[in-house]
Amino acid sequence: MKQLHFIVQAKGGVGKSLLTYLFGLTKQQDEPSLFVDVDSSTQTSTRQLTFLGEDRTETLSLLNEKEVLVRDKFIAYLESLVDTPFNDIYFDFGAPESEQLPALIERDLPFKEFLDELDFQAHFHIVVGGGGAYTSSVEYLQKILKALNQQFEVSVWRSITTFSNFPILAQELQTNCKKLGLPLRQFGDFEPSSNLGSQILDGIRKGYGIGDYQTGAKIKLKKELNDNFKGE
């Protein structure tokens, strides 16, 4: 059974591509995994995941010739994956594409039945940003949870850096996830103003693999993966 991982959030700039990159590091030596950039506006993951090689990364545009999002393109793409050799497939959705997902799941077709027929299992990784992004992030979380209707595995991911100055919001998110029975995970403890943090963020922009970093940054990244991505 193929495992699909949808990394989503309709609010931009909250760390979806960073989370995708970190998943990429966990799968660096795992050849039967594929990473798909579904962000038509920035294609950030395409640049950040160059260390995986062209055979394990793809871009998918859901826009038609009039620059209008066509949800059916995503359905057709999923069908095309049936006979591929990849076991784990990660999708980095842009904000507009994330916004369309609830409608696809609720209105376009019975999504769970569709995936079951293809022998796919879906995991939704919903990123929540802190500060000014918090309210919009939570509103999207509520919207997609309603669409998913408890039919899929869901993880909520808190971007550590964006919550660093907002402990009350972090506590509120933790409390609400606990009430809803949702696993709350965290990622991205890279302070841009610190030397190691800036090294790592620069390496991410350049598409470094774990072995491309200097010793200090490499050890910090390994700690990030060990602390927050164990079992992936």
User: Helix/strand/pairing class, anyone?
Assistant: alpha/beta
Please trace the helix and strand order, writing H or E for each element.
Answer: EHEHEHEHHEHEHHEHH
Task: Please give the order of strands in the largest beta sheet.
Answer: 3-2-4-1-5-6-7
Oligomer: single chain
CATH arch. level architecture: 3-Layer(aba) Sandwich
User: How many strands appear in the DSSP assignment?
Assistant: 7
Fold blueprint:
Elements: E1 2-8, H1 16-26, E2 33-38, H2 44-48, E3 57-59, H3 72-80, E4 88-93, H4 95-108, H5 111-118, E5 120-128, H6 134-148, E6 153-159, H7 160-163, H8 167-180, E7 184-187, H9 195-206, H10 215-228
Parallel strand pairs: 1-4, 1-5, 2-3, 2-4, 5-6, 6-7
Helix pairs in contact: 4-6, 9-10
Entry keywords:
232 residues; Rossmann fold; 10 helices; alpha/beta; single chain; seven-stranded parallel beta sheet; 18% strand
Q: Can you walk me through this structure?
A:
The chain is of the alpha/beta class. It has a single domain (2-228), classed as P-loop containing nucleotide triphosphate hydrolases (Rossmann fold, 3-Layer(aba) Sandwich). Helices cover 46% and strands 18% of the residues. It has ten helices and seven strands. A seven-stranded parallel beta sheet has the order 3-2-4-1-5-6-7, with helices on both faces. Strand 2, helix 2 (44-48) and strand 3 form a beta-alpha-beta unit. The radius of gyration is 17 Å and the shape is globular. The two termini are 16 Å apart. The mean pLDDT is 93.
